[in-house]
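Dear support,

Our group has been running a series of protein-ligand predictions, and this particular one with heme C is the one our PI (initials K.S.) wants archived with full inputs and outputs. We had some confusion internally about which version of the output was final, so please treat the block below as the authoritative record. The input we submitted was:
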Amino acid sequence: MVAGATFQLSAAGGVEVDEESFSGRTAAAVAEFRAAIELEPDLNRGAAHFATCAACHGADGRGSGDGAIPAVAAQHVSVLVKQLVDFRHDRRWEERMQHFASQHSLAGPQELLDVAAYAESLERWPPLEGGFSDAVAEKRGSALYHRHCADCHGPLALGELRRMRPRLAGQHYAYLLRQLNETAAGERPGMDAEHVRLIGALSTLERAGLAHYLSRLSPNLASTQDRAR
Ligand code: HEC
Ligand code: HEC
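Confirmed final output from the archive:
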């Protein structure tokens, strides 16, 4: 079914590109993204490329519970390609990823799509490491999420393939918290200004509540948006 979603992506002639999510990107970066998502993915070649990624992200794509390495399994292929393109074109900074997303490791659009489609096809089990059971934090996070985030990331935090909105459900607690803190500190240059403002206005406790809530949601559901299209 996941491969089906990928096929649909290509069959539909690419994702419905939300122009705003490309603000600040160079023409070369946007062109590379568009070229990749219009190709047909090859999961076998993607699996071969993923052997390099597995050294950090794990063969199952689940990343690490300490928050250093995110789960990429079951992330939308469009989101994965966009992040890889951002690492390649200096819109997202992390030395190791800039190296492994570079043309040195992934030659061009076809390789980007293949490896991203393979990662998407992996299942993401709820990563229980890293979070802790705290009903108060979870309730706080849930309320904030539904007020400020659900419109974009979806009612179940499953994200949206076509608008390149990341699936947050079942991502590692510590990774989510770190991304929220780095976003607020202006260290995710790919995020649009409104996203930065929204996250920056939250207190430390609120960010922790959100990360707590999101990390505990089940990631193993197809989003209604994906099924409808
Ligand atoms: C040496 C370790 C390492 C290797 C190898 C590696 N990654 Fe990563 N990856 C990371 C780290 C660390 C991050 C988190 C970066 C950050 O904090 O911004 C990351 C982040 C990512 C992200 C962003 C995820 C998100 O939710 O936004 C994607 C996509 C990704 N990696 C894909 C890959 C792919 C595909 C490969 C193989 C071609 C790969 N990585 C190889 C360490 C690695
Ligand atoms: C207007 C739509 C929108 C809203 C509202 C929104 N987001 Fe996002 N969010 C996005 C998009 C698009 C991205 C991908 C940005 C990029 O390309 O780097 C993103 C990225 C993220 C990431 C990084 C994911 C990763 O894997 O690195 C986190 C965490 C996140 N959002 C959390 C939140 C939270 C928490 C809220 C509510 C307080 C929120 N977002 C509200 C659209 C939105």
